[in-house]
């Protein structure tokens, strides 16, 4: 499903409402809310809004468990860290226990070894069914999502829940939830907007199936919901 807004500012409260509703529903039905956050610039406004009392007081943060969809393998105090950004704009401002936050980085260990450890951390919360209640994603102008970049071996990974690899084009290690893990989620929300995303978004939504070039096409929930939140500039004339 695709919901198109006039501009990116209209996306923010809509996305925040989805977050709150998903949290309330999960906690009411299963006692906990398990989410994977996304990085980049797209969710910043939503995180800031969720941190305000109007939104934050609607969520029982004691029962919220936070993971990330992907991460650059950089220390948590690095400005490139998705965890740092998320904590700065949201998690540092709400009453969530630190034990409920699982950054996708750890010192003194390789990214590959930590991918195995991170998978076990997820399993300790969601058990073997592997279902996140909500996964937030962005999309790059090359059609990548999480750290599922075009033409990478990770795109074929079906057994691991979490994978780490060296991304040569960025000269760094990345760690990511795999597509098969993301697709187990009860709800997936993709926030992507702006004219620079137009070509990739239209290829993802309306073009031929070519996930090696546009990895976002791999995101097809098994029995959950997939929602794209975008704006007129990104979607262009296709509606």
Give an overview of the whole structure.
- By secondary structure, the chain is an alpha/beta fold.
- It has one domain (2-235): Rossmann fold, CATH 3.40.50.1360.
- Helix content is 31%, strand content 19%.
- It has helices at residues 8-30, 44-50, 53-56, 82-89, 111-126, 179-182, 198-206, 232-235, and strands at residues 2-5, 33-37, 64-68, 70-72, 134-137, 162-167, 172-177, 187-191, 225-231.
- A six-stranded parallel beta sheet has the order 1-9-8-5-2-3, sandwiched between helices. A three-stranded antiparallel beta sheet has the order 4-7-6.
- Helix 1 packs across helix 2.
- The longest helix is centred in the first third of the chain and has 23 residues, at 8-30.
Question: What features would you highlight for this structure?
Answer:
239 residues; alpha/beta; Rossmann fold; six-stranded parallel sheet; three-stranded antiparallel sheet
List low-confidence stretches.
none
Helix/strand order: EHEHHEEHHEEEHEHEH
Helix content class: 25-40%
Distance between the termini: 11 Å
Secondary-structure blueprint:
Blueprint: E1 2-5, H1 8-30, E2 33-37, H2 44-50, H3 53-56, E3 64-68, E4 70-72, H4 82-89, H5 111-126, E5 134-137, E6 162-167, E7 172-177, H6 179-182, E8 187-191, H7 198-206, E9 225-231, H8 232-235
């Amino acid at each position: 499903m695709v919901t198109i807004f006039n501009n990116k500012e209209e996306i923010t409260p809509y996305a925040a409402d989805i977050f709150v509703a998903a949290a309330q529903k999960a906690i009411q039905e299963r006692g906990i809310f398990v989410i994977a956050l996304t990085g980049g610039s797209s969710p910043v406004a939503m995180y800031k809004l969720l941190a305000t009392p109007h939104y934050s007081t609607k969520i029982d943060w004691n029962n919220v468990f936070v993971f990330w969809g992907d991460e650059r393998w950089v220390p948590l105090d690095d400005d490139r860290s998705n965890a740092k950004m998320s904590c700065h704009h949201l998690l540092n401002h709400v009453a969530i226990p630190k034990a409920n936050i699982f950054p996708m980085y750890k010192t003194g260990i390789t990214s590959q070894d930590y991918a195995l450890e991170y998978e076990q951390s997820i399993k300790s919360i969601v058990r073997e069914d592997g279902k996140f209640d909500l996964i937030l994603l962005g999309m790059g102008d090359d059609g990548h999502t999480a750290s599922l970049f075009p033409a990478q071996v990770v795109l074929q990974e079906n057994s691991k829940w979490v994978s780490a690899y060296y991304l040569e084009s960025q000269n760094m290690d990345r760690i990511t939830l795999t597509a098969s893990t993301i697709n187990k989620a009860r709800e997936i929300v993709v926030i992507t907007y702006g004219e620079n995303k137009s070509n990739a978004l239209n290829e993802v939504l309306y073009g031929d199936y070519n996930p090696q070039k546009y990895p976002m096409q791999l995101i097809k929930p098994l029995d959950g919901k997939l929602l794209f939140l975008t704006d007129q500039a990104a979607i262009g004339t296709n509606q």
